[in-house]
Amino acid sequence: MEKHYLIKNRRVFSVLLLVVFVLWLNPAFTLAQPRIVHWQHHSPARLAMIKDFAAEFEQKYGLQIALESIPLGDYYTKLLSSLAAGSGPDTFQIRSTDVPTFIERGVLSPLSASIITAEEIKQEFNAGTIKYLADDRQYFGLPTDVQTIVLFYNSDIFKEEKLTRPPETWDELIDYAQKIHQRDENGMTTRMGLAHGSYGPVIWSFIAQSGTEFIKDGKALFNNEEAFKAFEFTTEWIVKYGVEDLDFGSRWMAFRQGELGMVAAHPAMLGSFRSTHPDLPLGIAELPTLKKGAEQTNIVTNWAYVISQKTKEQELATKWLSFLTSEEAQRKMTRKTGELPARKSLLDDQELLAVEPLLATPFASLKKAKPYPFRAWTQMDTAVRKAVQKVTIEGMETRVAFDWLVQEAEKIYQEVIVKK
Amino acid sequence: MWGNKFNKWQRILAPYIFVAPGFIFYMMVTFIPAIVGIWLSFNQWSIISPEAEFVGLQNYISMLQDERFWSSVYNTAVYALGLIPGIVIFSLITALLLNTKIKKIVFFRALFYLPVITPIAVASVIWTWIYHPRIGIMNWLIGLFGWTRVNWLANPDTVIPALVLMGIWLSIGSRMIIYLAALQGIPRSYYEAAQIDGAGKWQTFWYLTLPLLKPTTLFIMITTTIGAFRVFAQVNIMTQGGPVDKSLVLVYYIFQRAFADLRMGYSAAMSVFLFIITVIITLINWKLLGRNISYE
């Protein structure tokens, strides 16, 4: 009887179908359960983990997490455009140093204090990773993608050269590199001693070892003799000692193939080396210091999970970010991706160290690391790379290049932080 | 009476209604954004902030005083100067070689066209390997002549020529097809007449083929010029403007200022500059090559 009625009233049936279809298209109808749109930059290993976390969180709290993993090269372009259009995600990642700018522009919502308080954040997370994540009153993000700078070395090459322990001072570092470096009869490098690839955080880490302050209120404070010596030291690997050969090609390929003795890099490379070259004989040491026994330090870089000011689910979003950065989640993430945990409690975690003993050194390096010294992270990385290349490629005097870097730091602050 | 009036209005309105979707789409995705871009160039705007502050010509003044901007203009001009003649000459030579009746000619035409359908990201990775200082084909090739190896992408003197060579490889296929179509459009009777007049192969090419290809050359020059000034992807993937800004091209610099520094107004000012330069160069091309063009 019912079927007969519907067939007889095709119009009514069609309208009903249309209404159902329109309602189905409307997320507010279909998603009676709350929904959080989460964006992050892409890494296959991380995406797999986040998917698992999302599934677990959905089950626990009865909401939907819509994940989008975007290649890093396109990430900021897409994120900024969508935020400008008012269609951005509820939760997303940004570089930690960008958080103050996003706060100033009213783009971010503070974390809900009913889920996690400022005091808890200060107590539980490494200080270097949360420096940029708060204003005077409250926190706007939780740290992720934490990286320090450490020295990877090929332990087989060390054995071959009878080097029984990692280098501890700058002099030792050069001495080791010279022993490792090999050339053919034409003077072409066949095995490279040491490399930094003019990579910003590595150069800043060596400069940080001088104990210098970097910048305050737009005034560059690293214009001092100790900082200059550190900068000069990194250029000398190439121009004075010749232990880093710019014509040798990618340092990563060289290290993977056993053609590079030591490379200063982020600990995340451990996961990368393990996945592509599981048999690579690896060792990790902290960055050598100028003098034996001097205080070790390096630069920590990290991203932050933040909440959009436009989200309707601030509390749930905070809960989701707390879940993503929970002890258990960070333990899993470190185990699978090599990303360092931001939680202090995990830096002595025996379970993690039992699985990957080499993590002990990166964990130790994080305890001593200083936060990235500039708010304009990408611009200052480009600037310091350019300063090193001015010496190593253009043959500029080191002092002139260093002075240029100091001026550039102040110029970038004015252009990027003040004028923005 | 009403029927006639309706038909009359229908005749007047119908063409506009048919054109309207395309026109509205064009206005939405091209014209209006361009006007907004020009307006933005007089403002300071960080993209994430809802408010833009009107700053008059300040962005243009900053641009003219910005050394890196001029450096990027210079690098782009050098790239274009290498790329444009390279593409015109090599695509013409390729088209002439492929405009013959040999066996499997379609295979060779497809072979030369392949780079056009190669994604730029893939092409960039391939060329990064070609230019690898130790194991790259390029250094192996120059090694055959006894030359020492070059770090093509990390050497300030070779980075732009390396990008030009890749640019020629990328674009030669599409331009070759256009030349090939133009060559096949030249009536055979012209060549027969030239032959009867005793013209040699070189004379036939110089006094007959080349002048008749002038409209095609003009088109290729203009499109290549526009493409050369918009080079971005390969720089972004292969060199990131380095070493020491030697491959910092204008669009990459605009992108950096817009999405790294969040200086949208400043980037818009540079985009307006790029637009004006492109129009000027197109007009010069038109003035120099567009004269005495016969399409018959």
Explained architecture:
The complex is a heterodimer of chains A (420) and B (296). Chain A is α/β, with parallel strands linked by helices. Chain A folds into three domains: 1-30; 33-146 and 302-366, D-Maltodextrin-Binding Protein, domain 2, CATH 3.40.190; 150-297 and 374-418, D-Maltodextrin-Binding Protein, domain 2. Helix content of chain A is 49%, strand content 16%. Chain A is built from 20 helices and 14 strands. In chain A, the strands form three sheets. In chain A, strands 1, 2, 3, 4, 5, 13 and 14 form a seven-stranded mixed sheet that branches. A five-stranded mixed sheet of chain A has the order 7-8-11-6-12. Chain A has a two-stranded antiparallel ribbon with strand order 9-10. In chain A, α4 links the parallel β1 and β2 (64-70). In chain A, α19 packs antiparallel against α20. The termini of chain A are far apart. The relative contact order of chain A is 0.15. Chain B has 296 residues and is an all-alpha fold. Chain B has a single domain (59-289), classed as MetI-like fold (Orthogonal Bundle), CATH 1.10.3720. Chain B contains 13 helices and two strands. Chain B has helices at 2-40, 58-65, 67-98, 105-113, 120-130, 137-144, 159-184, 188-196, 201-212, 214-229, 233-238, 250-259, 264-289, and strands at residues 43-44, 53-54. Chain B has a two-stranded antiparallel sheet. In chain B, α3 runs parallel beside α7 (159-184) and α7 (159-184) packs antiparallel against α10. The longest helix of chain B is centred in the N-terminal third of the chain and has 39 residues, at 2-40. Chain B is flat and about 70 Å long. The model of chain B has no long low-confidence stretch (mean pLDDT 92). Chains A and B meet through α5 and α19 of A and loops of B.
